[in-house]
Every structure is written in C-alpha cells, then in structure tokens.
Design brief:
Elements: E1 8-11, H1 14-24, E2 34-42, E3 45-53, H2 58-62, E4 73-81, H3 89-104, E5 110-117, H4 124-128, E6 132-138, E7 142-144, E8 151-153, H5 154-159, E9 169-170, E10 174-181, H6 198-202, E11 207-208, E12 211-212
Parallel strand pairs: 4-5
Antiparallel strand pairs: 1-2, 2-3, 3-4, 5-10, 6-10, 7-8, 7-9, 11-12
C-alpha cells in the first residue's frame, strides 16, 4: 500500500492547478495572485494542489519581518487535497514544496499563510509543518454579500468598488496568520510576537474541517 513517501510533488501549470482548486477547495475559488503551483501525485494521478503567489497587501505584509525585500516572500494562498492521500500527506507535501522553493528560488526568505477559522480550520496542517503562529483575530475580512449570499473578502470587494461592503455581516469565527521561515535567520526579525499554539483554544478559535471545537 502506498504511503506518504510515495507522493511525488512537482510544479504544475496554473490551468491544471486552478481546475483542481475549484473542484476541491471549500471556497471553490482560485486566487488571481497565485503564480507558482505544486501538484501532489500518487499512483499516477493528481490528488492535491498548493498554490503560492504574492500577497494582496504586499507592502503591509512584508513589514511583518524586518529587512524583507519586495520579492523575498510568498503567500501560500490556496491549498486543497482530495481524500485519496494517506494520513499526514498534507504536511509532508507542504514540506516538500518549501524545500523545492528553497532550492530553486533561494531569494525567498519566508512564506505566509492564513487559516480560515470561519469555514475551514485553525491551521493544524501549518502547525505540523513548523509554521509560527503570529496572529489570532476575530474575523472581519470575510463578509457575506446580502444580495447574493456570496462570501467575499473585503479587499476583493474594495477593488470591485463595492462601497457597501463595510456594512455586510462578517462570517462568525477567526482568522489565524502563520509564517514559515525558509531562512531561519530571518525569524529574529519578526516584528510581531510569536503566539503559543495553546492560545487558539484559549481564545475559542479552534476549528477542524469547518466544525468549531
């Protein structure tokens, strides 16, 4: 029986990655900023995708780590797996993708990602992959369009020039921010506190597969 070490992680075209994301990600949406896509293959078929790209608020995000250059960090902005892969596949695939980035794009110093504790989970995969927790906050960014019922990020609504989005109801839950340091020396330059994982439960922010704990 195939195990996690049999999974092959490699770069794939955006067309293939986006099609998989739309089918398997809980939001059903891709991120236009995604530019680097890794596929997880087992038994000759694609069973997972990790999409990296620039942060939407790049100028603000880079200040989280002092001394970061404009193109020295990425955001893991979409990740989706089907149910075929064995246990612990997600953390292994993330780890392989990060090692590939380190080898082939040595200018990238760190990676940021966000866990959606309103619809998905609190970031257990990130914690298993040695990410650092840097923020837990009550959700204010994901809101519900009262006319369509669509769940929209405020930045997306802002760029769509929808002036009413500030009055839309936020989704109930939390947003958690994680950072992985490819360049371990950059960790000392973090400009915000590192948060113990135990704070997630203390603040009532725990969620797994869309179910609050």
């Amino acid at each position: 029986m195939a195990g996690v070490k049999d999974i092959e992680v490699k770069v794939i075209p955006s067309k293939i990655a986006n099609s998989f994301i739309q089918k398997h990600h809980y939001s059903g949406k891709v991120v236009p900023n995604s530019s680097l896509h890794f596929g997880a293959f087992l038994d000759g078929k694609l069973h997972g995708v990790m999409s990296y790209g620039a942060s939407i608020n790049k100028k603000g995000t880079m200040n989280l780590v002092a001394g970061t250059g404009w193109n020295e960090f990425l955001e893991l902005n979409r990740m989706a797996f089907d149910d075929y892969l064995p246990k612990n596949s997600e953390s292994r695939c993330i780890g392989v993708s990060l090692r590939l980035i380190k080898k082939n794009a040595p200018h990238i110093k760190w990676v940021i990602s966000f866990a959606d504790g309103t619809q998905c989970g609190d970031g257990a995969i990130y914690r298993a992959s040695n990410f650092v927790l840097t923020d837990i906050r009550k959700n204010d960014a994901l809101r519900i369009n009262p006319e369509t019922g669509e769940k929209v990020h405020t930045i997306t609504a802002y760029h769509a020039m929808n002036k009413d989005f500030k009055n839309w109801k936020p989704l109930d839950g939390y947003q958690l921010r994680y950072i992985y340091f490819i360049d371990k020396d950059m960790r000392k330059n973090l400009t915000v506190p590192e948060i113990p994982f135990s704070e997630i439960a203390k603040q009532g922010a725990t969620m797994y597969k869309g179910v609050k704990k």
